[in-house]
């Protein structure tokens, strides 16, 4: 019982952040399942968690590993066509809190274009506000790699957004002169 209260106190306050990250990575249709699976794994292995460390970084690491595992399993699946008559899922109070912090459509589009290793680093740094050390622990890579991925990811994001927002230039009219 003590483990449950400790888990509730340390891990549950980060549910919003983990869900938001899952939503950015897997999309709104898979975010619930990904978050649930990550928390199930966290609960299962909570005895391995060191309370002196950052629980949010630990949960992000579990989410990252869960996402990779699910990606490996589903990468060969074909997408199913949308069903218009699908029943609406119930909305929960905690979802509104997460959805209020959603990124703009341009930013979501640009993030989707980033390679996974840049996307993870940028989301953990700028959305989840983890430190370089926490990100390095979550992604299991050196701090220098984290810093370069964040820098390159931000530059790539800026480039993508600028290109997307740039007004479309009309092609100049060319006159065709026909000889008779």
Structure description:
The chain has two domains: 1-74, RNA polymerase sigma factor, region 2, helix turn helix motif (Rna Polymerase Sigma Factor, Chain: A); 102-166, Orthogonal Bundle (Arc Repressor Mutant, subunit A), CATH 1.10.10. Helix content is 66%, strand content 0%. The protein contains nine helices and no strands. Helix 2 packs across helix 5 (93-100), helix 6 (105-113) crosses helix 9 and helix 8 (132-139) crosses helix 9. The relative contact order is 0.12.
Task: Quickly describe the structure.
This protein is an all-alpha fold and 180 residues long.
Task: Give the helices and strands, then pairings.
Elements: H1 2-10, H2 15-26, H3 28-44, H4 55-74, H5 93-100, H6 105-113, H7 116-127, H8 132-139, H9 143-165
Helix pairs in contact: 2-3, 2-4, 2-5, 3-4, 4-8, 6-9, 7-9, 8-9
Structure characteristics:
single chain; 180 residues; Rna Polymerase Sigma Factor, Chain: A; Arc Repressor Mutant, subunit A; 2 domains
Roughly how many Å is the radius of gyration? 21 Å
Task: Tell me the overall shape.
Answer: elongated
What would the CATH topology of the largest domain be?
A: Rna Polymerase Sigma Factor, Chain: A
CATH superfamily of the largest domain: RNA polymerase sigma factor, region 2, helix turn helix motif
Summed over residues and divided by their number, the pLDDT gives a mean of 80
Proportion of residues in β-strands: under 5%
CATH architecture descriptor name of the largest domain: Orthogonal Bundle
Structural class: mainly alpha
Helix content: 55-70%
């Amino acid at each position: 019982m003590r483990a449950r209260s400790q888990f509730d106190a340390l891990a549950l306050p980060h549910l919003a952040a983990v869900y938001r990250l899952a939503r950015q990575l897997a999309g709104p249709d898979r975010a619930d399942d990904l978050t649930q699976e990550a928390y199930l794994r966290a609960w299962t292995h909570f005895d391995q968690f060191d309370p002196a460390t950052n629980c949010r970084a630990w949960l992000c690491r579990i989410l990252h590993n869960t996402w990779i595992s699910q990606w490996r399993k589903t990468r060969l699946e074909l997408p199913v066509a949308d069903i218009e008559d699908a029943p609406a899922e119930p909305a929960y109070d905690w979802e509104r809190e997460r959805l209020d912090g959603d990124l703009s459509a341009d930013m979501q589009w640009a993030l989707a274009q980033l390679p996974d290793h840049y996307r993870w680093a940028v989301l953990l740094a700028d959305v989840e506000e983890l430190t370089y050390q926490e990100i390095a622990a979550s992604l299991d890579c050196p701090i220098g790699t984290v810093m370069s991925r964040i820098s390159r990811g931000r530059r790539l994001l800026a480039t993508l957004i600028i290109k997307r927002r740039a007004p479309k230039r009309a092609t100049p009219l060319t006159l065709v002169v026909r000889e008779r």
